[in-house]
């Protein structure tokens, strides 16, 4: 699938007023359209009280027809039992799917800054209310409980880190849009945040993987189980010093039988304030095996598209969490993504729209 830019719309979801729980960030959003209400767009987003992310939760914004004009839900948080859960201090990067008449939200979180970030699940019978955290789904391969653990992890030899199960490091994040293969199987695309290659002064390297999750109806409600981990999908990474040296926080979409993955990318080896991008790949398979997957292509360059994506930005742009959705009304792909002017340090949500074709 080939994409062509129609318009950079700029910021469509801004931070809130001082004192609100999204005064520091309104970002890392996941787009969702309920098949029963196809005209309405929901953006589930990460709300932070300040730019230091002292506390974060999940909020909702929605648009009834114009998918570029959003109103924030008056509810200060969607998670009814965040306190005491695995994401009591930090809940972010939501990703929502519909399961029959119910809804599931994957999200990342942790209880404190000294804990590893892991992925968990919230469930609800209502899209816009009453989300309940039901537990953790997957923790990263490395653990940390304090600075001494981090120091030990960074001193582990490269040979140990070369094991496939350790690619996650000690923090992981959700992608923004999963693939629903059937009524009971969901593929959640995710990425590491930290990296084993941080030790010995090596630059951060981020990779992506897949969590295969099964869902079924039980006597007490929805039953879920992580059935398989796939990754890392290292063939999606470029070599050192290339634009996709690191890839992370992917969002999935399927159109005309083609599977497309949008992702953020960065060249962390470039040093402080590295260049960042939004890219995409197309595959014959939702598992994105090398033989049936196209070469990655750049959609947005933080440097070249700065003036259009974030007018007035003074610093280097950071880009993250692309979330694509097809608008059947105008036939365009609406791509929502996180954007930050590194000078202001406020993460916001931007939109770019694209036409598509099946060209090779």
The outline comes out as globular
Quickly count the helices. 3
Structural class: mainly beta
Radius of gyration, Cα only, in angstroms? 19 Å
Write down how many β-strands occur, each being a DSSP E stretch of 2 or more residues. Answer: 21
Q: How far is it from the N-terminal to the C-terminal residue, by CA?
A: 7 Å
Strand content: over 45%
Provide the low-confidence segments as ranges. 145-151, 153-163
* CATH architecture type: 5 Propeller
- Percent of residues in helical segments? under 10%
Rounded mean pLDDT score: 90
Q: What name is given to the CATH topology? A: Tachylectin-2, Chain A
CATH homologous superfamily name? Glycosyl hydrolase domain, family 43
Order of helices and strands: EEEEEEEEEHHEEEEEEEEEHEEE
Q: Can you tell me the number of structural domains?
A: 1
CATH top-level class: Mainly Beta
How many strands, what sense, and barrel or not for the largest sheet? 5 strands, antiparallel
Descriptive notes:
This protein has helices at 147-155, 158-161, 306-309, and strands spanning 2-13, 25-32, 41-48, 56-63, 71-72, 90-99, 102-110, 118-124, 132-138, 172-174, 179-180, 185-192, 208-218, 221-230, 246-255, 258-266, 276-283, 297-301, 317-327, 332-341, 347-357. By secondary structure, it is mainly beta. The chain has one domain: Glycosyl hydrolase domain, family 43 (Tachylectin-2, Chain A, 5 Propeller), CATH 2.115.10.20. Strand 2 and strand 3 form a beta hairpin. The chain is globular. The N and C termini lie close together (7 Å). The model is unreliable at 145-151 and 153-163 (pLDDT under 50).
